[in-house]
Amino acid sequence: MAEKTLMKGNEALAEAxxxxxxxxxxxxxxxxxTEISAYLSKRMPKVGGVFLQAESEVAAINMVYGCxxxxxxxxxxxxxxxxxxxxxxxxxxxGSDLPCVIINVQRGGPGLGGIQxxxxxxxxxxxxxxxxxxxxxxxxxxxxxxxxxxxTKAFDLADEYRMPAVILADGLLGQMxxxxxxxxxxxxxxxxxxxxxxxxxxxNKRKHNIINSLYLKPDQLEDNVRARFERYEEIKAKHTEAxxxxxxxxxxxxxxxxxxxxxxxxxxxxxxxEGIKVGIVRPxxxxxxxxxxxxxxxxxxxxxxxxxxxxxQMVDDVKxxxxxxxxxxxxxxxxxxxxxxxxILAKIREMGGKN
Amino acid sequence: MTNEILLAGFGGQGILFMGKMLAYFGLYxxxxxxxxxxxxxxxxxxxxxxxxCISDDPIxxxxxxxxxxLIVMNTPSYDKFINTVVPGGTVLIDSSLVEAKTDRTDINxxxxxxxALANENDMxxxxxxxxxxxxxxxxxxxxxxxxxxxxxxVIPPKKAHLIEANIKAIELGMQQ
Lengths: 355, 176
Fold this sequence. Notes:
The structure holds 2 protein chains of 2 kinds.
Chain A: E1 5-8, H1 9-19, E2 24-27, H2 34-43, E3 50-53, H3 57-69, E4 74-78, H4 80-95, E5 100-106, H5 122-127, E6 137-139, H6 144-161, E7 164-170, H7 171-175, E8 177-180, H8 218-239, E9 242-245, E10 252-255, H9 258-273, E11 278-283, E12 285-287, H10 291-297, E13 303-308, H11 315-321, E14 328-332, H12 341-351
Parallel strand pairs in A: 2-3, 2-4, 4-5, 5-7, 6-7, 10-11, 10-13, 13-14
Antiparallel strand pairs in A: 1-8, 6-12, 9-11
Helix pairs in contact in A: 1-2, 1-6, 3-4, 9-12, 10-11
Chain B: E1 2-10, H1 15-28, E2 32-37, E3 47-55, E4 69-72, H2 75-81, E5 90-94, E6 108-112, H3 114-120, H4 127-139, H5 144-154, H6 162-174
Helix pairs in contact in B: 1-5, 3-4, 4-6
């Protein structure tokens, strides 16, 4: 087994991107994700890739658009306000059916907000990452090791389904160090040879490819969008992920994702020691959303608690997942405040066994 | 059992480095570990702190708000954190920089003039490592062998000549 080493989430993710065959990175600095750029600025030239600090987030995402069109694995990263700037480009990338990986190391908002960890971009990433009918695959890792493991998966699925994949982290995951190992010891090859749609040099051996998101004829556009949504159904069936613990006999089930899930799990385990029957289910993918898995985890529960670092965004999807069949309560901190396991435990105690 | 450690001082005192060393102690003892810095404007000379968790079980919250172990290297950090230490906890204070004395009797407090010791012994900038040595002596957090292994990992190869000096600083701390 490879040696365990301590790395910051941001740096580990950047190294994992290199090993996943990412050949081009376009970024613009913003706290708390800047270590991704800084790491890749040193590392990317050594593997024959391109690191480019663009003049703005808008420029960076449009460089990703162009690079993805040529069939090369590429990535951009930012934090909340920067992602807002990128959304127009993300919509174009989705509309052109191009693969790329986008990292959001969330901070508090709205506006410039703050620089401390937050999960207040859930609505944006799952419901409106740009205009138009489209989705991005969204992963929500909960540890530094998972930041690493998710990167390869994100690139592979983005390529397979020709769509953007997002890794939704936050300042806590980006800044903390934990032990990591890298399974991909060799750098994956990344070229356009298995991408027949790519707009790259071909010596006039085939008809040229066109990358486009403009369809002026409504019936054509409708067909195009419908075909994309058919692919979405396949992704939902094959790639929805959630992890549940202690749910079988739980009276209360906690739903939380990302770094909040690990805080909530500590609270759940402390509550179990007090004899409170409580479980936890963690969505690993936020789109596709693990509605069935959540309903299954909550089937024996009397009530459900959603915990987030926001004013309550995912909580609506939890209610939909269980068809509003039982009470769903919410606990959250926002603005960059990290909820303490003790606070979550207090809320669990209050709800424990309550009908 | 989780050892929740909080390190605090000014930016530039090596607070984050000390944290990284502790995290590697844990890693090499086959424990679960996490390291979380305060980040942002603090890094530019303001107050700086760092949470380190060393545990037998997976770590939920990497943020330490009720430490078992506290090391403070300036007065603002002392004022802010001295009352957050759990009863029975261990506190190391750089008494060259912090004049205050706590009246808490439910914690183990060690006053070490680490900065003065560093200056007197030609170890400028190694007050943090002296404190780490004292922690080693008082809590058996790890072995000297692990300390050396961690030093070799954390100190970059081009600064390898500093490993010996760091070990000396650890030893000086252990004599206090």
